[in-house]
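Query protein
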Amino acid sequence: LVDGARGSPSKPQLVAPEAVAATPTAIAEAPKASQKLPIGPGLVGTTDELRKAWSAKRFLFRDPLTTDPVPAMVVRLPGGAYWGLSLREPFGNCELEYVTDLQKLQTSYDFHASHPMVVDPCTHAVYDLTRYSSGTPDGGLVRGEIVSGTGVRPPMAIEIRIEGKQVRAVRME
């Protein structure tokens, strides 16, 4: 969400797996049970891990209401901005996927795309990371406009701050 913002540092909890680099045939798959993911709020990655456009890194983020860890991801967008999102579908339990395989988007979701998208495999909603739409109760804009399917709203955003080479997940909307 935020590129280069400064804030108070928070202590990292776990250090972890490599980033998922976007290639035409890659899909950001769920980590294996043996992998330890970083837990936010806090340090979730480095700018070196996310140096290329469309690269992504999974982490967990503590839900602000339940404190349960929620699967999450940070994606580096073209232009250098970082977008953090919850991978739990808004108002549901299905886990969203980051799909970089454009052919899969066409065959599985009947959607022609020119760049990676976030999808909901339960509702077949497709979210465009480069676009904004309304989604908050106060009418605010949220990244991840629904471009296909029957999603309720864009994915829940997680504020990302860059501090030097550290990528920090700060708070979930």
